[in-house]
């Protein structure tokens, strides 16, 4: 895999020319930015920017104005290769708060194992309805110690109105959900995105994360995608590297909360 070429393709398909990631979301493009407005339960933010020292501050002001007028918190999804180099400092000066850096990791699906081997006593169940989404939410709340209500609402809407754009799976130990993940399947793109992979503490270190990646990789291959993409935390980065993913860049969320 040519890292520079794949990164350029990723920037074009998944950032500059990205489609809305769910029902009700809209994407707007200018010469210097691409943003999505997803509403109260969707993702809101700037996905791509092509800025320089002269245009950066005005672009930041415009995005703050747009989302603040809607009363929406939003994220500026900044990548390490984005310009200008002092954009992080400009975002901080404008009132954004940075969250932990993640690694942009990509693998060619044809080079990954798609043999799904869950641990003994575990079954994988594809999520297609509200009951399955509720099981995923239980896992999310325990795995990440955060409120999964927004993700619950977003996934329910997506499964109902655009089921071909997402695959969700939950790992069950008997009747107990212990791990879950989803995959976004954007139209007219080479990349399928892996999101939300989490395992409850008592079941970590047993191969569930790897099994869920293989499960989704198999489906992505069947649907004609060439690459899998992950925004990886420090915990998942080494696992993904062992499975064949390469780090192409890093991405840091810069979050802005509208002033009341």
From TrEMBL:
CDD domains linked: NAT_SF
Domain N-acetyltransferase residue range list: 122-260
Record SUPFAM superfamilies: Acyl-CoA N-acyltransferases (Nat)
Chain positions covered by the region annotation Disordered: 16-41
Domain of life: Bacteria
GO molecular-function term, one example from the UniProt record: acyltransferase activity, transferring groups other than amino-acyl groups
One Pfam family it belongs to: Acetyltransf_1
Listed name of the protein: N-acetyltransferase domain-containing protein
Organism in which the protein naturally occurs: Planotetraspora mira
